[in-house]
Amino acid sequence: MLEVILSMPPLTLLSAIALAFGVLVYVVLDGTDLGVGLLAPFQPPQARQQMNISLLPVWDGNETWLVLTAGAMLALFPVAFSILYSALYLPVYIMLLALIVRGMAIEFRHQHPALFDALFIGGSWMVSLSQGATMGAWIEGVAHNGEQFTGGPLAWLSPFSLYCAVSLTVGYALLGACWLVWRCEGELAAWSRRQAIRLALFTTALLAGLVIWTTQLHENYRLHLLAWRYSGPLALIALLALAGFILALRHKREFLPLAMALTLFCAAFGAMLLAVFPFILPPGLLLTQAAAPPATQKLMLIAFGTFVPITLLYNSWGFWIFRGKIHAARDADRP
């Protein structure tokens, strides 16, 4: 593994790191507010209003990372972008449509709470499941000839991609529960605390199954995930995060459960990258084969290095300005 990293052109390695960073930030930020939508059907309208208010200032900033990451992939690895989106256009279109509907539901809930609650819930579930299926199809491998996709329109649909869809959705629900513990109060926070424990155990079991299944997909995956000097630290971080999560909930901490859940997500994301490296489209297209010309990579990395701090500052400022607990109110009391 180390030899492969050292043999790779630094510019391509930096491009891969930039792309991975963008994906990770999107997953942990938007995954959290998607998780709130996944839990909304289990709460009455008054609690849904608290959930909605907690997301209003931040949901669009979180989704900025999806645009940034998609643009970076198109510019940095155009061959991979072309093949991947040809293979996954159906779940990607479903995701984009659901994101639009969901955003509209968050912004206009006060106009018709019952209707927009339904759209918010449906959109959250569709986005989460389609993202998980997309991730699963990518890990399992995309049929191509090095230049274009060679499979069928439903090639992405498989038992593994469906398992990934369920796993990511449960993981997002865990992040959503932790968000509600942090931002809400009263019965909603207490209910979220109880669900967070169950969802954490369920997520951990699904992740363990995912790692085992992934090792069976390709020999490269098995060798990388069983290389304990690389996978061991990730497993240790995940276990410590899970232990910290349980302790934080028992001691009724408010933000720490979310921080620990996000750490667990980061460890799982690191294991996924470890398995597929050095492929951009596993198991047949290397990062070096799909990379844009060096001049394009330099230009895009400069742009990425400019926009990322601004976006991070915008996100951080938004979280700081709208920090604090969300108080319960009735829909009829809203202006």
Description:
There is one protein chain. By secondary structure, the protein is an all-alpha fold. It has 14 helices and two strands, in the order H-H-H-H-H-H-H-H-H-H-H-H-E-E-H-H. It has helices spanning 2-7, 10-39, 45-55, 59-76, 78-87, 89-107, 113-140, 159-183, 186-215, 219-225, 228-250, 256-276, 287-290, 294-321, and strands at residues 279-281, 285-286. The protein has a two-stranded antiparallel sheet with strand order 1-2. Helix 2 packs antiparallel against helix 4 (59-76) and helix 10 packs across helix 12 (256-276). The longest helix has 30 residues, at 10-39. It starts with a helix and ends in a 14-residue tail after the last helix. The model has no long low-confidence stretch (mean pLDDT 90).
Helices and strands in order:
Layout lengths: L1 H6 L2 H30 L5 H11 L3 H18 L1 H10 L1 H19 L5 H28 L18 H25 L2 H30 L3 H7 L2 H23 L5 H21 L2 E3 L3 E2 H4 L3 H28 L14
Antiparallel strand pairs: 1-2
Helix content: over 70%
Structure class:
mainly alpha
> Any idea what the radius of gyration is?
20 Å
Please count the beta strands (DSSP E, at least 2 residues each).
2
Instruction: Give unreliable regions as ranges.
Output: none
Tell me the strand percentage band: under 5%
Overall outline: globular
Strands side by side in the biggest sheet = 1-2
